[in-house]
Amino acid sequence: MRKILSHDPVSIKENLRVSVQVFRRIITLMPEKRSGWDREVELSVFLYWLAAGTSYRVAGVSFDIPRATVKRICTKMLSFFLDVVMLQVIKYPTGNELIEIGRRFCNRANTGIFERVAGAIDGSHIRIKCPPALHDQYINRKLNYSIQCQAVCDSNNKFIDICAGYPGSVHDTRVMYNSPLYYRRLYPPAGYFLLGDSGYPCSIHPIAIITPFKETDRQPLTRQQKKFNNLHSKARNVVECAFGQMKTRWRSIFNKDLELRIDNCVRVIVACCILHNICIDENDIMEAEAIFEIEEARNAEEWQDVEYQPIRDTGEGIAYRQQLVQRMTD
């Protein structure tokens, strides 16, 4: 671990899963210390713990410190990320930032109709090892135990809103209805809208979400509706990409059941989202592995098929979507 603590770029990337630039950026956010472990040591232990799949034992052996000390450091660092860093790196864009986000969404889909898109919304299921007493709450329709993480992403694959912690048995739409984003009308601002898959309602109030057209046996899609859906999908997949990139970076966490207390599972998920944004800011991009891209795409398709009673497209939402289709054909 001497190479890590000496800021060796290769060793940091291999063992801590972030670039030396990201490591140094986080150090600048940490308060100065007068006693105890150095900031570099605490951050190294924490990132190594994440990279090792949240194993206190493995991190302790690697740094030659007691397991209890590793746990204490990681608990402290989780609080630091969620209480201090999160407010600085997961935040709603405003002003010119919104204009730039809309421009990039248009570029992604090669169309001019998405200049008022402020983000895309979707959810991901994070597998956990569930306590037997909570079986019914956390088992999802794929018969895995999971915690849900709802996210809104901008056009650069960055998280701008996170709502993590709902059990896997809860439908995506119910998570949205109970999220502060929705019931406090936090985002997007007036005049802008989010892109969501067909598991969400196409509506304008309380927050604007535009979804693709749904095809039924009685009502097949027209050529223009299919074209709109294709453009919508190209722009919307930023959320799948973001989750895929995050899960690739921390594959030791996300390719197995997360074995922590439920509340700590949630904290780890949010911390990984925070780190994802810092990595993007520092141009430390880790392309999603195919297995995670396929998983996110499949999850999105499967959860769209699950009916949840409150899903209702509104007249205003349908009318706004039709305006976008009309602009597409003009």
What can you tell me about this protein's structure?
There is one protein chain. With 330 residues, this protein is α/β, with parallel strands linked by helices. It has 2 domains: 1-89, no CATH class; 95-327, no CATH class. The protein is 53% helix and 10% strand. It contains 16 helices and 5 strands. The protein has a 5-stranded mixed beta sheet. A hairpin with a 5-residue loop joins β2 and β3 (159-167). α4 crosses α5 (56-63). The chain is globular. The mean pLDDT is 91. Its main location: nucleus. One of its GO terms (cellular component) is nucleus. GO terms for molecular function: hydrolase activity; metal ion binding; nuclease activity. Belongs to the HARBI1 family. Its cofactor is a divalent metal cation.
> Which sheet architecture does the biggest sheet show?
5 strands, mixed
Instruction: Tell me the strand order in the biggest sheet.
Output: 3-2-1-4-5
Number of strands: 5
Calculate the mean pLDDT score and round it.
91
Shape summary: globular
Order of helices and strands: HHHHHHHEHEEHHEEHHHHHH
